[in-house]
Amino acid sequence: MKKYEIMFIVKSTQDSDEIKASAEFMKSIITDNKGKVVDFNELGEKKLAYPIKKEINGYYYVMVVEADNTAISELNRKAAINENILRHLTIRLDEE
Description:
Structural class: alpha+beta
Radius of gyration: 13 Å
Low-confidence stretches: none
Shape: globular
């Protein structure tokens, strides 16, 4: 399995339970596809550099995962469909 760093931004106009549910949804996509979440960090609410879908603030999350290509492609597909996820970025980490 390869190691990836995934950053995603959740809408801040939701209540705190919905924001946490969106973050757990992203984690569950990896674990449901036989991946492992190595590290998960909540960076908190920040002002966006420019409005995204009429939102000016967002909750930032970063997670490091070990997964195969099918789990990552499934995460990218579901993150694009989910209205509560404003943006996401997946970076493959080099092996040391």
